[in-house]
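Hey, can you fold this?
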Amino acid sequence: MAEQNDVPIENKTETTGGHVLQVNVRMQQGEHAGQPLYSNFVSVQGGQGIVIVDFGFLDPQTMHTLNRLVRAGEKIPDTVGARMSCRIALSVEAAHNLAHQLNQLLPKK
């Protein structure tokens, strides 16, 4: 089953005179892209011209234990193990577009 997503792209370039150009892109799933991934933890790192986003999964029991330790005022471990679900390397512009789309989607607190 091929699912398609229409993704608006905002392109701010000098050739458009500083205007925002919006183009709809029809994105089709690749051969292995149909597998759903679940993440309850995200880590973001910057590099030269790219942003690396690691999506991970922390075991719910680990999260429960950490919350219990914090509430009790006990020392929490320096390191907790998580399983990486996916790593994505984005251009700075793509990361900016992602942040913009997430800000539009998520309600402000």
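Oh, and this one too while you're at it.
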Amino acid sequence: MALTRSLTARWRSLEGTGLDHVTLTPGEGRVVARGTVIGERGGTPYGVFYRVDLDAEWRTREVAIGTAEGQGLHLLSDGAGHWSNGVGEHLAHLDGCVDVDLAGTPFTNTLPIMRHAWEQGERAEFRMLYIPFDSFVPSVDAQVYTCIERGRRFLYEAADRSFSAEIAVDADGLVTDYPPLFTRML
């Protein structure tokens, strides 16, 4: 599904004091998401800004994240699951990940939802490039989505079965409710 207008969304954390604000801007064959997340993990506060560049098929092509303290990460993708760092060095351990999953934001749940043509009851497993906000060290995370109600509700599961949640989305594929983690405010 092509994005034809700019969108803004804001979520609040249901586990603490966090907020996430993102704006999606369509361009020629691409969508750029720019966001800011403030929150805490394990009692340690964080503030992170992010930019995720997507191609027309909602495949992640570039990720840049940083903090006010100067910590940052810049990754590039060919859109087919091959990643490199900001200076072009191939990151073979991340091969196969088409989507990025940024800790602290439900925005990145939108990526596999938008990339896939879902049928009700369909289940799909995705190899995600997961970036935690405490270390910015990317790793591979297998995630499973099941379409409960086409275009409206999905069951999200960690492939290792350590977590699951029913996620509600709007007509644009953006999360509206993600208990017990987030709820949409805007």
